[in-house]
Amino acid sequence: MKKRIITSMLAVMLTVTLTGCSKENTVKTSSESNKVKIVTSFYGMKALVEEIGKDKVEIHNVVPEGTEPHDFEPKAKDMINIEKGNIFVINGAGMEGWSEKVLKSVNNSNLEVVDASKGIELISAKDHEEEVEEDHDHGEYDPHTWLGIETAKIQGKNIMEALVKADPGNKTYYEENYKTFEGAMNDILNTYKPKFNEVSNKKFITGHATFGYLCRDLGLEQNSIEDVFAEGEPSPKKLEELVKYVKQNNVKVIFTETLVSPEISETLAREVKGKTEKIYTLHSNEDNKTFVEAMKYNVETIYNSLK
């Protein structure tokens, strides 16, 4: 009898031990640690990574949504998050002036740094420059590459290649996601480029000069309230020129952005008895749209304002 009790107790203990091991293995399998840890510089890059990595990646974003990335100053907690990452994705092209200094201080020799703008033919920032103080020199190129169609495709490919390198077991998954993304961007271009070709007035006004690459894709011309680096409110001379530009070019829609005060846009719209309309610059997750959805909205909205 005593022997039988001991045997039963051993069986129970063994069952509990095995159950505990089984539970622990289940937790590990479903853990976020199985995902590739990506750190992105700002929301535009996060939205791009989401298109390619989807549920295989865990993303931490450095610049808070709705914050201007040009002049961002990283904190100690940002350094820690970057050090924990497998991949750090920056837009490049001078967008993140702080990134070089940060990377010199990061203690992670295995961190893969992706300059998403690598391989892009950049537009000179001088094409948009106004009178800018010397201590606000951000670089010689327009850094808003993620807002163009052809340029976003290049950036998506750079991200895809980094993911394949970091996680070769899911190579096909990332490649298929990129093909889907590339196809969606091509659909936007192929649908709207012929439409824009038929429009006689190809000029529009934005809050700041962020759409140079999209203009290059579609043969458009942007004018803006603030320059390419959003240096602040325009001078009285610039305002006078904008009013003249709006009237001469029969501009009826003035586009507004989250990072630029809508006040001047609203004033310009009143001057021509027009209206203001929102456009996405992907500095934050507005209206819960994906990268592709935001791009399609932008192109369609600009087209509707010109036709």
UniProtKB/TrEMBL annotation:
Family annotation (Pfam families): ZnuA
Keyword Transport: yes
Coiled-coil zones: none
Keywords on record: Signal, Transport
SUPFAM superfamilies named in the record: Helical backbone' metal receptor
PROSITE patterns assigned to the protein according to its UniProt record, in alphabetical order: PROKAR_LIPOPROTEIN
PANTHER family: HIGH-AFFINITY ZINC UPTAKE SYSTEM PROTEIN ZNUA, HIGH-AFFINITY ZINC UPTAKE SYSTEM PROTEIN ZNUA-RELATED
Entry similarity comment: Belongs to the bacterial solute-binding protein 9 family.
Protein name: Zinc transport system substrate-binding protein
Organism name: Clostridium punense
Native organism taxonomy: Bacteria, Bacillati, Bacillota, Clostridia, Eubacteriales
